[in-house]
Amino acid sequence: MNRAEFNQFCAGFPAAEHVVQWGNSDVWKAGGKLFAVCGWAEGEDAFTFKAGEIAFEVLQERPGVRPAPYLASRGMKWLQQFADDGLTDEELRDSITRSYQLVTAGLSKKKRAELGIPEAE
């Protein structure tokens, strides 16, 4: 997945908001809550997403995937794919989708309804 494909994919989520910050990173939020980032790692695109407990433990063992700098160092369960040998494009899309679901599940029912975000699974 490249940066353009990442942005197109993230734009498809209900209530997804895009901002560019943190040194030209593409930052995606829903309801004001971060769910995905595309920034730089060693001059290459790096994709950052929130993970559940098990996915955090399992996926960080894959080549090209690591606990996300800054976020994971503060105890949060965020991962970063920083090399092509990490996740497949399908796995990365699934991980971003799960990140969106985890983040939006934390929004109130009222807020999700206002934003048109489906009920939490």
Characterize the main sheet. Answer: 6 strands, antiparallel
- Approximately how much helix is present in the residues? 25-40%
- SSE order: HEEEEHEEHH
Cα radius of gyration in angstroms: 14 Å
DSSP E strands, number: 6
Characterize the overall form: globular
Helix count equals 4
Strand order of the largest sheet: 1-2-3-4-6-5
Mean pLDDT: 91
Question: Ranges with pLDDT <50 over ≥5 residues?
Answer: none
The first-to-last residue Cα distance is: 26 Å
Kindly estimate the percentage of residues that lie in beta strands according to DSSP: 25-35%
Alpha-beta content class: alpha+beta
What does this structure look like?
The chain has helices spanning 3-11, 53-59, 89-105, 109-115, and strands spanning 16-21, 25-30, 33-41, 44-50, 65-67, 78-81. A hairpin with a 3-residue loop joins strand 1 (16-21) and strand 2 (25-30). The protein has four helices and six strands, in the order αββββαββαα. The model has no long low-confidence stretch (mean pLDDT 91). The protein has a six-stranded antiparallel β-sheet with strand order 1-2-3-4-6-5, covered by helices on one side.
Give a short summary of the structure.
The protein has 121 residues and is α+β, with helices and mostly antiparallel strands. It contains four helices and six strands, in the order H-E-E-E-E-H-E-E-H-H.
